[in-house]
Amino acid sequence: MNVQRFLAPTSREAMAKARSVFGDSAVILSSRSTGGGFEVVATAEENLDQIAAQRLTPRPQAVSEAPAVGGRRSLQERAELQRPVLGNSQSSVEQDTETLAMSTLSFQDYVRERMLRKRREALGQSAQAPVAAQPRQREAVVQPRSVLPTPDHNRPQQAASRSPQAGSGAPSAVEARLTGELNALKDMIEERFNTLSWLGNSRQNPIQSNLMLKLIRSGYSPAVARAVLERMPPELSAADAFKWTQEVLTRNLKTADASSSLCDEGGVYALMGATGVGKTTTAAKLAAQCVKAYGANSVGLITLDTYRVAGYEQLRSYGRMLGVVAHLAHDAAALQDLLNLLSNKRMVIIDTAGLSQNDPRIADMLELLASPKVKKLLVLNAGSHGDTLDDVFNAYKNADLYGVILSKLDEAPKLGPALDTLIRHQAMLRGVCTGQRVPEDWQRPDAASLVRLSMGTTAKSAYDPQSSELGLFFSQPVTNPVTLDAWHV
């Protein structure tokens, strides 16, 4: 039996010495603090069975009664005192801790020692049991270390009854996955063939090919261009085909009724959008129109912009020019109090803070404006890229938008991306801002004029495709094809 004693200034160093001798299989038998440092008695894990067998062997009485040398007990005496009484499985954790002089660093060693003690108790009980019961006792000892379940004579029949279900379930999952992949492959092949066929017909039809190039150069997406041109009657001339295309785009661009404006409708309006799109200036334009039509007492101004420097001061300056008091709301309670205070106003305009379409605070702002009486207006920069406008719409898709306001039309090189986004998302256009002047640079939306302005672009751009490059725009399948109203084609 290889049992060694290790002495070191600290418990960590003593345990390190034990592990350096016995490796990872080292088992701490006992540990205590001495005058010369910390003492650890350890052995290898493969010696545990030999130690347990020696513990079961009767010891001479003289060994336990031998006097200690120099006032201290020998290693055998201390091991004998730490040996638990056979059959006593009620030893408490407190007694084990006091016996082993356990510290926080030796907790893992204490756990090993306790598991060893339980195994010795089980071995002692099996030694005292009859010979006929020994196999069952030994099985009970080995079972905690085994991953096999308790034997059951009915289990083979249960496994046999479950095996057809398991065998039938696995192929069904694989079959469903393969079916989905085949359907996706089929759709892709059909879309590719339809695209190639459509491109071939476009090359044979110069009018359709020229209109397709015109739409792409105007900023419209290939999805909208294809959805419009594949419904064009083939017998139209070049002029009639161009006019027909403009009429289709006009009918599919939703705009508010020209006979009424936002100030005529009245209510509570909240202007939302990204940073720098002109929400505060748009709020001032709407307030100026209402003041001009119904007086200064008919308008209420509220701002939630507490992030931007001088954001409240800008709206307050516009309010002084119009004779309207601008209020600041820091939270939901203040906003509700101000809405109750201004409930007698014909029109209440809420200016919100500019947030990026990827800002997680958009959800908090939408929750703040969750009242059903608040009409949410999304302000979009007409000069933004089409992908940027799509991201903005996706960020506010849960906002229950009342409408959209296009700003900075005077700065937009192309109106095609903005109109294309409004058509694909079926959003209602409520107003158009064409400059910074208040309130002169505000116009009611006219779908025909906007489409005609977008298609009348003659400036050349480095991003304009050539006729030979149109195949690149339609080489990939259209994942979300545009559905046009049949009555508007």
Automatic annotation (TrEMBL):
Query: Its domain of life?
Result: Bacteria
Looking at the record, the residues that make up the AAA+ ATPase domain are 265-429
Q: Does the keyword Nucleotide-binding apply?
A: yes
For this protein's source organism, the top of the classification is: Bacteria, Pseudomonadati, Pseudomonadota, Betaproteobacteria, Burkholderiales
* Matches recorded under NCBIfam families: FlhF
Q: Where in the cell is it found?
A: Cell membrane
Q: What species does this protein belong to?
A: Hydrogenophaga defluvii
User: Taking the first listed entry, what is the main subcellular location of this protein, grouped into a coarse class?
Assistant: membrane
Q: How does it sit in the bilayer?
A: Peripheral membrane protein
**Keyword Membrane part of the UniProt annotation:** yes
Q: What does this protein do?
A: Necessary for flagellar biosynthesis. May be involved in translocation of the flagellum.
Q: Which family does it belong to?
A: Belongs to the GTP-binding SRP family.
CDD domains, per database record: FlhF (cd17873)
Task: Show the SMART domains listed in the entry.
Answer: AAA, SRP54
- Specify the SRP54-type proteins GTP-binding domain's residue ranges: 266-456
Question: What InterPro entries is this protein classified in?
Answer: AAA+_ATPase, FlhF, FlhF__GTPase_dom, P-loop_NTPase, SRP54_GTPase_dom
Q: Which residue windows does the record flag with biased composition (Polar residues)?
A: 156-166
What ranges does the record list as Low complexity composition bias? 125-135
- Entry protein name: Flagellar biosynthesis protein FlhF
Which UniProt keywords are listed? Bacterial flagellum biogenesis, Bacterial flagellum protein export, Cell membrane, Cell projection, Cilium, Flagellum, GTP-binding, Membrane, Nucleotide-binding, Protein transport, Transport
Region called Disordered, residue ranges: 121-173
